[in-house]
Amino acid sequence: MMMMTATAIPEDVFLSWLLAQPAGTNLVRAASAEIHRLGDYAGQHPGPQRLLEMFVELRNALERKSTKLQ
Prior knowledge:
The chain is an all-alpha fold. Helix content is about 70%, strand content about 0%.
């Protein structure tokens, strides 16, 4: 996985995370774990909040897609 620096933008972090997921990974569960982890962030930097939003968007989109396929 690509090394992230303190100046990495959330979109780069998200994309690196997504591309690093092994084939067959349950992305809903993996995204939920990241949402839980980021939910504990209490700092002031806007990056983690944006990253949290992207993981929520991914999880919601995957859940909607799953519901449509059923």
